[in-house]
Design a protein that fits this description.
Layout: H1 12-26, H2 37-43, H3 48-60, E1 64-67, E2 71-74, H4 113-125, H5 140-153, E3 163-166, H6 169-180, E4 186-191, H7 195-203, E5 207-214, E6 217-218, H8 220-226, E7 230-233, H9 247-260, E8 263-267, E9 292-297, E10 309-312, H10 315-322, H11 334-345, H12 348-374
Parallel strand pairs: 4-5, 4-7, 7-8, 8-9
Antiparallel strand pairs: 1-2, 3-10, 5-6, 9-10
Helix pairs in contact: 1-3, 2-3, 4-11, 5-11, 6-7
Amino acid sequence: MYKLDSNSKEPLHIQLYKELKQDIQNNLKVGDKLPSIRKIATLYNISKTTVENAYSQLYAEGYIESIPKRGYFVSDLIEIPFKNTKNQEYKEETKEYIYDFSPTAHHKSYFPKKIWKRLSNQVLKEDIDFSKYTDGRGDIGLREAIADYLTSSRGLKAKASNIVIVSSFIDGMSIVAKLLKPHFKEFAIEDPGYYITENIFREFDYKIAKIPLEGSSINLEEFKKSGAKLVYITPSHQYPTGGVMPISKRQKLLEYINKTDGYIIEDDYDSELNYTSRPIPALAGLDDSCNVIYSGTFAKALSPAIRVGYLHLPNSILELYKNSYDSHFARVSITTQKVLEKFIKDGYFERHLRKIRTLNRKKHNLMLESLNNQLKDKYLPIIYHIF
């Protein structure tokens, strides 16, 4: 029974709404049918309008749905915190680990906090115009710094005009998925591959073609059979196996994409942290026909917390971007962009990379040594490059 007080200052339809809402949250389950408007009006001796107003509010908030000629039912359109949630305080669970093997985190001591603080103070003393929105592609100084870095270290013929600064890998892939949706219906990805990318393109309603690996990288023949002309790959460090795409296969893939007027999305997410050899040049550096969309990030090499990534777009995609809503406003704060620009141009980034390569290589070798000593023949080491 619902508690309704006709003498209360609170309107009856609000009282009924609250009682019904509490019943839904604590007692009912998805798909349960609610009493009819006429039945509640008769049972509680209230007007049908009062009941209708209560039901309308529940419907507006998504707690119930109306099925013609059948009545009102507890909604299955959204996730509702059913059962035993009354007065419960949400508590965030945190776990502490002795050893954290997460691929998305760094050791706290790795971030160059003193240098970053000093550069931040320098930037704030400069004459920065905080009164207007900045370039939607990102600040030109940072784009120039990234273009120089990509040219010297990744083998790209990079241009600052083709770079777009994004707030994260997810942000960048969402832009690409949105821009290309009118032109492509199918999207190919390595299998196994990076599930986040698959989820992003699935949300934009692409038909997903999962292409198996052949050795250390994507199977080209299976990719051709899929009929997809848009493919996402991680050629310098295949995720999650760590394999490297051979130069012969890179050239064949580029040749096929150029013939079919398709695009390759190259995710170069972890290229800087190679412990066993010199960094593998990016696939985009081999592309003279501008059919590679290059995605990079500072999350792995510097910090996932500063939220800075970038895209190097072919001219054709850049034109689509310029005509889109996404190009109107910058996606990363101007101060963060300016500090990162100084960090790169003043040589701190290169020094930082050398430092963390050395530290991570020691950890990498220690882990392998421990596995060999403790597990011996009970594990199979990965045969590809380990980054």
